[in-house]
C-alpha cells in the first residue's frame, strides 16, 4: 500500500486502474482512524477491486472557533490501519495541494439550514467542496460515508444527485463502543468523567427508539431523548431534532426513514448521535 500526496499521483494510478477495468471505492476521512472508518474500508474492500482512502483534515469545514488546529492526528497509526484493512492507496495531501488560490466552493441550500448547519454555518460548504474535489480526483465507482454523520450523508447524496456525479454513495451503519458510545475521533477529547457522561447520547438514542415504537408524534420522541440528556449534569444540548430523512426539515409526524438526531456538548466537546425511525 502506497501513500501519495499530490493530485497528479492519484490521477496517474486511477488512470492505470481504469485502463485495467478495475472498480474503485473511495473512503474519504480526516484521519485519526477508528473502527468506524475500518468498517467503511471493509465495505469498500468487499465491493471494489481497488480501495483508496483519503486522509485530509479539511480546513474549509472548520469554523473560526472550532478545533482545526487541535484536531487529532496520527498518521502512522492510520497507515497501519489502512494497510490492515487492505487499502491500496492513501491520498494524504497538504492544504496547499487542495486549495492553492482556490476561489470556488460548492454550496448546498436547504438541507444545510437544519441540525448541525445551524451552529456550524460554513461546515457543509467545506464538506461539499472537499468531497466534490475528492470525487473528481479519485473518480471512484463508489464512495463510503458513515451514518453517524447522518446530515453529511444526506447532503452528499443530494449534491451527487444535483450535480450528476457518476458515483454511488454508500452509507454504512454507526459503529459503537461496547458501552454504546458512537465511535468518533473527537471522543479522544473526553476526560474519564466526561467519557462516562457522554453515554447519555446513546441512552437518548435508546429512549428515542423506544418512544418511536409507540408513537409517530415527533415531539414525544424528541422529549424522550431530551429528558435523558437533561438528566446528565455535564451535558448541554446543542440540538435534539426529528427531521425528514431526505430534506432534513423538522417533521411533526414521523414516518420510516425519518431521522432523530442530536448534538450535545460534554464539557467543551461536541458529540453527535442519531437513529433512523423504523430501522
Ligand atoms: O466525515 C468526515 O470525516 C469529513 O467530513 C469528510 C467527509 C472526510 C470530508 O472532509
Number of domains: 2
- What's the rounded overall pLDDT mean? 98
Q: Helix count, per DSSP?
A: 10
Coarse morphology: globular
The gyration radius over C-alpha positions equals: 19 Å
CATH homologous superfamily label of the largest domain = HUPs
Notes on the protein architecture:
This protein folds into two domains: 2-172, Rossmann fold (3-Layer(aba) Sandwich), CATH 3.40.50.620; 185-273, Pantoate--beta-alanine Ligase, Chain: A,domain 2 (2-Layer Sandwich), CATH 3.30.1300. The strands form two sheets. It has a six-stranded parallel sheet, sandwiched between helices. Strands 7-8-9 form a three-stranded antiparallel sheet. The chain is of the alpha/beta class. The radius of gyration is 19 Å and the shape is globular. It has helices spanning 7-19, 35-47, 75-84, 95-99, 116-119, 123-138, 150-162, 192-197, 199-214, 218-230, and strands spanning 2-4, 24-29, 50-55, 89-91, 142-146, 168-172, 235-243, 259-266, 269-276. Bound molecules: pantoate (PAF). Pantoate binds at residues 28-30, 58, 61, 127, 130-131, 149, 152.
Question: What would a concise description of this structure say?
Answer:
The chain is of the alpha/beta class. Helices cover 39% and strands 19% of the residues. α6 crosses α7 and α9 (199-214) packs antiparallel against α10 (218-230).
Question: Topology, pairings included?
Answer:
Layout (H helix, E strand, L loop, with lengths): L1 E3 L2 H13 L4 E6 L5 H13 L2 E6 L19 H10 L4 E3 L3 H5 L16 H4 L3 H16 L3 E5 L3 H13 L5 E5 L19 H6 L1 H16 L3 H13 L4 E9 L15 E8 L2 E8 L3
Parallel strand pairs: 1-4, 2-3, 2-5, 3-4, 5-6
Antiparallel strand pairs: 7-8, 8-9
Helix pairs in contact: 6-7, 9-10
Bound molecules: pantoate.
The site of pantoate (PAF) has 10 residues, from strand 2 and helix 6.
Amino acid at each position: 500500500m502506497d501513500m501519495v500526496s499530490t493530485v497528479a499521483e492519484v490521477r496517474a494510478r486511477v488512470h492505470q486502474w481504469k485502463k485495467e477495468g478495475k472498480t474503485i471505492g473511495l473512503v474519504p476521512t480526516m484521519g485519526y482512524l477508528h473502527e468506524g472508518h475500518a468498517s467503511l474500508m471493509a465495505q469498500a474492500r468487499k465491493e471494489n477491486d481497488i480501495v483508496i482512502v483519503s486522509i485530509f483534515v479539511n480546513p474549509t469545514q472548520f469554523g473560526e472557533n472550532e478545533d482545526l488546529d487541535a484536531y487529532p492526528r496520527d498518521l502512522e497509526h492510520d497507515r497501519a490501519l489502512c494497510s490492515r484493512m487492505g487499502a491500496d492507496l492513501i491520498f494524504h495531501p497538504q492544504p496547499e495541494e487542495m486549495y492553492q488560490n482556490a476561489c470556488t466552493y460548492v454550496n448546498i441550500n436547504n438541507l444545510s439550514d437544519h441540525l448541525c448547519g445551524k451552529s456550524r454555518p460554513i461546515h457543509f460548504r467545506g464538506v461539499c467542496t472537499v468531497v466534490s474535489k475528492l470525487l473528481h480526483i479519485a473518480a471512484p465507482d463508489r464512495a463510503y460515508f458513515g451514518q453517524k454523520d447522518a446530515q453529511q450523508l444526506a447532503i452528499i447524496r443530494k449534491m451527487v444527485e444535483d450535480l450528476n456525479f457518476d458515483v454511488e454513495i454508500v452509507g454504512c451503519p454507526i459503529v459503537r463502543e461496547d458501552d454504546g458510545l458512537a465511535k468518533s475521533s473527537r471522543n479522544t477529547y473526553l476526560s474519564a468523567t466526561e467519557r462516562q457522561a457522554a453515554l447519555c447520547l446513546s441512552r437518548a438514542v435508546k429512549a428515542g427508539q423506544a418512544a418511536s415504537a409507540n408513537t409517530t408524534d415527533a415531539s414525544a420522541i424528541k422529549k424522550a431523548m431530551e429528558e435523558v440528556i437533561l438528566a446528565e449534569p455535564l451535558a448541554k444540548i446543542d440540538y435534539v431534532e426529528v427531521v425528514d430523512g431526505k430534506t432534513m426539515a423538522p417533521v411533526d409526524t414521523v414516518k420510516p426513514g425519518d431521522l432523530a438526531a442530536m448534538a450535545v456538548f460534554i464539557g467543551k466537546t461536541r458529540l453527535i448521535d442519531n437513529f433512523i425511525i423504523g430501522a
